[in-house]
What we know:
The protein is of the alpha+beta class. It contains 14 helices and 31 strands. The protein has an eight-stranded antiparallel sheet with strand order 11-10-16-7-8-15-12-13. Strands 2-3-1-4-5-6 form a six-stranded mixed sheet, with helices on both faces.
Amino acid sequence: MQNIRNFSIIAHIDHGKSTLADRMLEVTHTIEARKMKDQVLDRMDLERERGITIKMQPVRMCYAPSNGPGPAKEYILNLIDTPGHIDFSYEVSRALKAVEGVVLLVDSTQGVQAQTLTTLTMAQELNLVIIPVLSKVDAPLSRVDEVKIELAELLGVDVDDIFETSGKTGQGVPELLEAIIKKIPAPQAQGGVQTFRGLVFDFQYCNHRGVIVYVRVMNGSIKKGDSLKFGASKKTFQALEVGVFMPDEFPTDKLSEGEIGYIVTGVKEPGVAGVGDTVMPASGTGVPLSGYRKPSPVVWASVYPESQDDFLLLKQALLRLLLSDSSLSFEEETSGMLGRGFRCGFLGMLHLEIITERLRREFNLDLVVTLPSITYFVELANGTKETVYSPHKFPEYGSIKKVEEPWAEVTLISPNEYVGGVMQLLYEHEAESKATETFGDGRTKLVLEMPLRELMRGFFDKIKSITSGYASISYEFIDTRSADVCRLDILVAEEIVPAFTRVVSRRRVEEEAEEMVEQLHKVMPRQMFVSKIQGVALGRIISSKTIQAFRKDVTAKLYGGDITRKMKLLEKQKKGKKKMKSRGKVNIPHEVFLQMMRGGEK
């Protein structure tokens, strides 16, 4: 164990974690030069296209520093490359529990960002050794000296203790590896606990071998063929294979205390494995490791197949994704307009984007995804309490006594010149400013509290637009508070369309109703009879637009005679249209739903 160093790279999204990991793999000769490619640890096409890490990827490197006297001593370096986005903060916290130290990476062109602070706090709470590092020091816009001072003040360390690296050229990487060996302690033996316990920090699914869990061995050791169980789900299984990541799976005889590796479970049931769970011997009464919790969804959206023939395919696809992502949750639901589909829970807007994109790509499904919503806690006038996940299930106006909604604390860092525009946006999104701090490099940190509903209403995109992409945001949930909201229904031909229903702030209800009615009026095809589009909230019609009917010129064939002949034909047409309107039903095409959803996301 004295030769093992377990560490993770933490940083804000797009600060160069995966690129630095690439250079480490090159310097340690873990991957042959001919097999080397950019973002080698990002295995999914979606990760490579977007340039972000979605799935955690561990790797084992062997390195022997050659600057000491005598023969070089070889060390085992276990790196866990973590996602930088706030949606995956729980997974990152479990990865940090599996290591003894972290490399805190800060982009020298951008400085400390909001997510840097969030992840740093996590590492400090776990008492991990923190090695501060600047990335992209060779970039023309890098501000090495300024950012070094900023980082030194944040951590309370000397400026000379901060390392300079470049993921592009490999500058400073050998020195950083040596610092990891010197500063990060080796795993410590747990006295008194001899039975095997492994912390699950991630997992994936293979068609042939079932769920493969990524574990950090906390106590004891494990070998192929051992009988094990999951601490939370109590599911027992046999270890079909154990091994380490080089970075591909490399089978070994056993995994010992302090090591990071994988266990092939053979389990093919969804919902059995979970991030943060403990793997223990099947026999005996071992105590699971602390800190496990089931990830709770933050954003809800309904997912329907464009063709109802694909409903079973969608169900199988969601079950398949659940085998490699325990934070996804879904339940079946039915909509009169859209047919059968699933109400899905996601960790955030990025998680929603990734899951729907994977469904489209990996399973070739054409989907209709409704507008995202959050959870509301409603107390009715008769004293009944309900938890509402779907806008169309929100109680009617007049039957509600009290509504509560989740609030979030948001940390926002922006250049000073954009703060005026940001403050105006905060008012529009019902945010309350709690603290302001000005950094020496012309940036300001704002700490806000705001409803989660408003955070999900395009807040990220608007902030990026106002600040020309320079601002950074991170958030965490704090509590639930009273909400002044109401249900907004959209009626087409006097019939409610559940897919367009929203829960909106009462002060913005007129604006929202007019926007949605106007947008639907533009994309809705004309019918054979006059039909109205109406926005209804607070027990009254707030906005209305009429779609004129197709109308045949019934008098075209008349070439003379008395005016009463024309009047008679027009009256007959009028009666027919009235009869059609009383019996007719408007069928809304799928394209209209798609255009409305896309318009809502902008």
